[in-house]
Design brief:
The protein is an alpha+beta fold and 100 residues long. The chain has three helices and six strands; from the N terminus they run βββααβββα. The protein has a single domain, classed as NE0471 N-terminal domain-like (2-Layer Sandwich). The protein is globular. It binds zinc ion (2 copies).
């Protein structure tokens, strides 16, 4: 279902919905504890390289994927539920609040 491209990750969902995530966006969205802590610390820049690429992507059970980024960050586990909630397409963006 997932397709890995140079510019990002494309997922076609079971219901036919299609999502495309730029690698940089995924790195910035990383839900791991370290990234969430950095995000809540005031004044700290995210510092995501614009040309960031995945070093490898591995499935995590049936529920998500583990993306190891080219900047050495390897703890980003993205559940499909999380990814779907953060779909960046025009149809989904307006429904997304600033929550979580
Ligand atoms: Zn992270
Ligand atoms: Zn969408």
């Amino acid at each position: 279902m997932e397709r890995v491209g140079a510019s990002g990750l494309r997922i076609v969902w079971a219901d036919g919905h299609e999502s495309l995530y730029a690698w940089r966006d995924l790195r910035a969205l990383c839900p791991c504890a370290a990234c969430r802590e950095a995000e809540s610390a005031p004044g700290l820049p995210m510092g995501v390289p614009s040309d960031i690429q995945p070093a490898s992507i591995e499935p995590v059970g049936n529920y998500g994927i583990n993306i190891r980024f080219s900047d050495g960050h390897t703890t980003g586990i993205f559940s499909f539920d999380f990814l779907r909630r953060h779909c960046r397409c025009e149809a989904c963006l307006p429904t997304q609040s600033t929550e979580g």
